[in-house]
Amino acid sequence: MHSAEQEIVRDLAAGPDQVYAAWTRPERFARWFGPRIFATPAERVVLDVRPGGTWQATMLGEDGFEITIGGVYREVAGPYRLVFTTGDPDDPGDGPASVVTLTLEEHAGGTRMRVHLAAVGNGGRERAEQTREGWLELIDRLAEHVRASASRVS
Questions:
Q1: 68 to each of 14, 36, 44, 57, 126, how far by Cα in Å?
Q2: pLDDT tens digits, 36-76
Q3: H/E element holding 127?
Q4: Which of 55, 53, 57, 54 minimizes the C-alpha distance to 43?
Q5: Which of 11, 55, 68, 122 is the one with CA 20 to 30 A from 86?
C-alpha cells in the first residue's frame, strides 16, 4: 500500500462560479466527466454536494459496458474549494482510491484550477501515471465545457 500525491494546474476561460457549477451540478458534470470514449448520462449522476454527501457517476461504453465511480464529499466551500474522495481511501482494498482537493481562484479574467490528487492503494508508478493521464483527459474535457458555456453566456 502506498500514497502518491500529484497536482495538476490549469487556467480556465470562465469564472470560479462557472467552474464550480461544472463540478457540482449533475447536468453540467455529465457533459465532461469520464473518458471521451464513454457517455455519462445526467440521469446517472448523483451529486449530494455537502460534507458527508456522496457522489456517483455511471459511464456508459459500447456494447452496454458500464463503470460506476463515486465517493464522498469531505469539504464544500463553493465556489473556491471542494474536497472529495474517489473510492474509499480509508479502506481501498485492491481498487484505486484518492482524496481530490479542488481549489479555484480568480486569475486573468478566468479561473486557475488546482487539482491535488492524493492516491492510495496498490499499483505503484504505473497506476499513478494512468491516474494522471485519466485526470488530464478529464480536465481537458472540463476546459472545453466551461469555455463553450462561457461563450454562450457572454
A1: 28, 15, 9, 6, 22
A2: 999 999 999 999 999 999 999 999 998 889 999 999 999 99
A3: helix 124-153
A4: 57
A5: 11
